[in-house]
Amino acid sequence: MMSTNATQSLDARGLNCPLPILRTKKALSDRGAGETLAITSTDPGSLKDMQAFCKQTGHELVSSDSMQGEFVFVVRKA
Amino acid sequence: MGAVEKIIPANLDQSLFDQWFDQRFETRMAERAAAHVPSLSIIATKGTMDWAYPPFILASTASALGWDVSIFFTFYGLELLKKNLNLEISPLGNPSMPMKVPFGPQWLRDINWKVPNAVMAGVPGFEKVATRLMEQTVKNKGVATIEELRSACIEADVKLVACQMTVDLFGYSPDEFIPEIKDWIGAASFLPIAQQSDVSLFI
Asked: Is residue B120 part of a domain?
């Protein structure tokens, strides 16, 4: 069964710096190249950190949204 | 001599050649920069709970970014490598530390208790209480514990190295420490690691 394009999700709500990034990195390491991961967080710092993380590691930040105090990121593994 | 003349013809157009070289040089340098793995080396010298955070946060984050990371633990920093972490925090002589209670109604939590130094120094167990309150605050705010961050570092292959001299100085026994310590070294072994690092921090 193929599940390469299925988006896996990671709940990082309630976690503070640097845990959302550490969990994201860990979750991505279980994914294959080109697969996507959706991360939900509540740490306002994660907005900039996720951009920096993707820029540095080469993963693609597909989208970054904030609504009602929650942030949703979609990252595609490089 | 001679070899250069063989590959550079006499009628070489110097400006064209310079142009080619500059382009080639830029491409090569960009390739090198892209292939370069950044590295971080930290010297951790403090053994209280508040000072345990910066080295472990920076090291675990750097490893998540794909960096090579080493931490050299020396003096009180060795406490951070004990099997049983029993880190405390001292508000005494630390006027910047907010003194707030992590429970009760919001108006109570918002009060920053200005406790005089003489009281902090005179009340037995004051540091224990401050430590428990800080641990509760950390939990309430979703901040990682030192144990969690240390495990994240170990999992990410952060090189934990410890100062041999400190062990002798304080009379520690090697089996008090976690087995993940990569090496017991001295200043002469750590400095070359720091020299090769892109970022080197003393904490």
From this structure: yes
Report yes or no on A3 lying in a domain.
Answer: no
pLDDT tens digits, B73-105: 999 999 999 998 888 888 888 888 888 888 888
**Of residues B168, B199, B185, B158, the one with CA closest to residue B57:** B158
How many domains are contained in chain A? Answer: 1
Supply the CATH number for residue B101's domain: 3.40.1260.10
Signed CA dihedral, B156, A59, A12, A32: sign only: negative
Substitution target in B65, B67, B155 with the highest count of A β-carbons within 10 Å is: B65
Kindly indicate whether the ipTM for this predicted assembly is greater than 0.85, answering yes or no.
no
Inter-chain residue contact A24 with B64, CB threshold 8 Å: yes
Does the residue A14 lie in any domain? yes
Beta-bridge partner residues of B150: none
